Amino acid sequence: MRNIIKHKIWYFVFSLLIIIPGIISLLVWKLDLGIDFTGGSVIAYDFQQPVNNQTISDVKKSFAQAEMPIYSLQTTAPNEVTVQTNPLDNVQNTHLMSKLLLQFGPYIKQGSFETIGPVIGSEITTNAFKSIIVASILIVLYIALSFRKVPRPARSWRFGLCAIIALIHDVLVLVGLFSIFGHFFQVQIDSLFVTAVLTVIGFSVHDTIVVFDRIRENLIKGGSGQKFATVVNDSIVQTLSRSLNTSLTAILVLATLLFFGGESVRWFVVALLIGIISGTYSSIFNAAPLLVLWQEIDDRRKKS
User: Fold this and answer.
1) Nearest in space to 161 (alpha carbons), one of 195, 136, 135, 196
2) What is the pTM of this model?
3) What does the DSSP 8-state code read for residue 285?
4) pLDDT tens string 110-145
């Protein structure tokens, strides 16, 4: 039988090796926040010919002439460029468009124009943090309540806290990697990213509860006479194929979306892929082994 628990320290070390670069990136480079958080205007321009390097250079030149800073410029379609700049009113937008028409003539037209104020951006940021904190508290309470009758040596509140630690692991992996992506690939954080984080939290907890529920069942069926580490290891092995198959199904769907879903949802899909892979790993190799480590520390403390 595979002894997963035996190597638990190595799983924790591997998690740290993944998380630490992201934490350093967050401290040094932070996150590249998009318009949803910072406020600003996003304008899409449609061209009658495919966009090339010269087109992008001319767009930047027109913005410079209008004295408008460019925070990001992306080719969102073969004939479309999307630009993020300071919040613009209609008069400023008209002035900017006149500069672009002088540069491109009838070969350009404005596709969309959206402005979000800094107050709205600040509100979105606050609500994002509130959502994650409230979700975490509710998860701890739910798991503690659901596992309140689990036989000793396990304790229901430990299941809840270990699930949250695994959840924090997944969030740190995801946010840390996107901090790195933002620095090297100019990937910005928007409201879709918050949606991805909350989705990952739900998936991570769901996968963790599957393993925890099997631990509870095995303890109730007589596993309390075995070593706690043995019961946990057996439970992980019994649920391993189910967890991997469930995750693989989701990954295949997301991989398809990544290749065929288009530019607008690409990084959202990448965030979900990272989160699901991390959530599967943390549920199997972090959450349950952490229960065992906690119990071993408790046993050593009682003996001393």
Assistant:
1) 136
2) 0.84
3) I
4) 998 988 876 666 777 788 778 878 887 888 788 778
Count the Cβ atoms, other than its own, within 10 Å of residue 41. Answer: 21
Summarize the chain as % helix, strand, coil (round to 5). Answer: 75, 10, 15
Contact 26, 175 (CB under 8 A): yes
Q: What is the pLDDT of residues 250-281, one digit of tens each?
A: 999 999 999 887 777 889 999 999 999 999 99
**Partners of 46 in the β-ladder:** 80, 109
How far apart are alpha carbons 188 and 273 in whole angstroms? 17
Residue with tokens 């693989």: 248
Q: Which CATH superfamily is domain 40-116 in?
A: VC0802-like (3.30.2130.10)
User: Which CATH homologous superfamily contains domain 5-34+120-303?
Assistant: Multidrug efflux transporter AcrB transmembrane domain (1.20.1640.10)
Q: How far is CA 131 from CA 121, 124, 126, 234, 285, in A?
A: 15, 10, 9, 35, 26
Token pair belonging to 143: 């798991």
Cα–Cα distance between 95 and 253 in angstroms, integer? Answer: 44
3-class state of residue 45 by DSSP: strand
